[in-house]
Amino acid sequence: MKSSGLTVIIDNQLVPLDDCGWIQRRPCGCIVSALVAVSGDRVVATARQAHEHLNHGKRELAAAEREGITVDTTELITMRHYHEHIGANWECEQHATPKPATP
What we know:
Blueprint: E1 7-10, E2 13-16, E3 20-25, E4 31-36, E5 38-39, E6 42-43, H1 47-54, H2 57-66, E7 74-78, H3 79-86
Antiparallel strand pairs: 1-2, 3-4, 3-7, 5-6
């Protein structure tokens, strides 16, 4: 697979954009959508592009923004960070299902 050749700085580290993804959060912190930054010929390099890709059309954009899901709640992360720290845990602390206590 051909690389986009683009790099970004995340946590003071230079990272290939191909190794990143975008997540959108509700104001509470829950993740509502995710998107790999580079897939084939599609390159999503800015928060605005990601926000518009994840919320198609004027109605969907307006609905998302009414719920507080905006460009400002769209975050670029490395896929490594996603796999190591997020994975299936999309809920914020407030909405997460409590884990059973271990004996």
